Amino acid sequence: MFLSRILFHIIAGIVGLWIAIHFIDGVSFSGHLQTLLIMGAVLGIMNAILKPILNLITLPIRLLTLGLSGLIINLVFVWALEIFFPEFQISGLIPLFWTTLVVWAVSIPISLLMRGKI
């Protein structure tokens, strides 16, 4: 179950990044497909392993902000990809925000599919 959860997060990361690169102005990628797959895998692993830990640590803040602090965690994850992978460039806060929303929007149906609700 845990490995399938990680796999679904990796797939969501890869697909979300691919969509963001192709459809969001200010997001560019100059690397190979293998690098994109590695980036999606890193994002998926961060979402599967680090995000639950950070959600638990920031629970009081999440309650006060009605969950919006979770968006900040996702923004930091996507921003970290830009830092660690020079082939991936996001020019500004607005493209970073939209990229984060795209990755999040892609992960919702995959998460529902994983839980058997679709």
TrEMBL record:
Keywords: Membrane, Transmembrane, Transmembrane helix. The keyword Transcription does not apply. The chain crosses the membrane at residues 7-24, 36-54, 61-81, 93-114. InterPro entries: Phage_holin_4_2. This is Phage holin family protein. It comes from Candidatus Wildermuthbacteria bacterium RIFCSPHIGHO2_02_FULL_45_25.
